[in-house]
Amino acid sequence: MKEKDRRSKNASVTAAKGRGAEARGGRHEQRQPPAKGVPFKGKPAATPPSKAVLQRSSLKEAAAVRVVKPRTGEKPAETVPLILETVATAGYHLIDSGDGEKLEQYGPYRVVRPEAQALWPKSLPASVWEKADAVFTGDTDEDGMGRWRFPGEVLGETWPMKLLDTDFLGRFTSFRHVGVFPEQLAHWSWMRDQVATADRPLKVLNLFGYTGVASLIAAKAGAEVTHVDASKKAIGWARENQTLARAEKLPIRWICDDAMKFIQREERRGSRYDIILTDPPKFGRGPNGEVWQLFDHLPAMLDTCREILSPEARGLVLTAYSIRASFYSIHELMRETMRGRGGRVESGELIIREGGLDGKEPGRALSTSLFSRWVPE
């Protein structure tokens, strides 16, 4: 076997095992669904419940302790639908999409990944797609394991990226993600403007903070940031990004904890935040096995977030990925949560606009996620 071929084969295996294992924390690990059991037929045996069953039961009871009571007062004003668009920017743009895939430019690299929302045919010829530097193969489910194929030169595990003047590491993970969700640029730009124009240092809470890009952007703009994620690996990646961004002296608290437990403690302590970003997964587990189910626990989470918003808060932002729901569902939940607080609730979708090879040829819009955002008027 030629040396180049041997390195290519080994690199594919490494991307699936080593690289993916290291980068599986944060959003990746939390989003992986629980294993499906085999349907039981007949009368079950009289065996004591397992430790896992007892743990799930106790966690469910603990989650039910907070009863979300109906709020009183007027609902906030509303803006629906609001479409927040990410267009080509320095460091990233969507080149093309179609036939269940997307072709993106991340810094120096062109990357092909599965995209179920891309129902239309591709615009650019196959010769353009074939020149990609990295192609994700294998399971195409959101949470599926897979491998990276490198058609040309074998690439390393990480590479330097820069968005909104913030440096961080891109990484090829076995869950097809690369360490940043560029559609969030719309929220991050809004947050940066809020922090930069405030007459005091704002306190920002980033829940389910993943690799810390949003936290670094907020801190560089002048905020005091608390970053919370249940994965030690995600926190480690975020700290790497902090070093790369030369932001070691910025006021960021990196906290590995269950998001619900953390905000409940903050409520008891009387802590307050001016901006809260929350990007919860459909399903997740905390560092001690705590179970998170979006539809079960989201109302209590938002209710608690309201309680820890400061009197002069600038916003509460919720993003929801890969759920079978309309943005109206989270929109109405946000309005009910913020009853009597005034302001406005803006809800809709985050999209990324195709930009062609040079990023300057606006094309189709690719929907990525739902969002709801409360802001004071």
From TrEMBL:
Record-level Gene Ontology MF annotations: methyltransferase activity
Residue ranges of the region described as Disordered: 1-57
Protein keywords: Methyltransferase, Transferase
UniProt cross-references to InterPro entries, sorted A to Z: Glyco_hydro_b (IPR013780), SAM-dependent_MTases_sf (IPR029063)
UniProt keyword annotation of Protein transport present: no
Range of residues in the leader sequence: none
Origin: domain of life: Bacteria
Family matches, as CDD domains: AdoMet_MTases (cd02440)
Pfam families: Cons_hypoth95
An example Gene Ontology biological process: methylation
Bias (Basic and acidic residues) ranges: 19-31
PANTHER family according to UniProt: SAM-DEPENDENT METHYLTRANSFERASE (PTHR43042:SF2)
Protein name as catalogued: Class I SAM-dependent rRNA methyltransferase
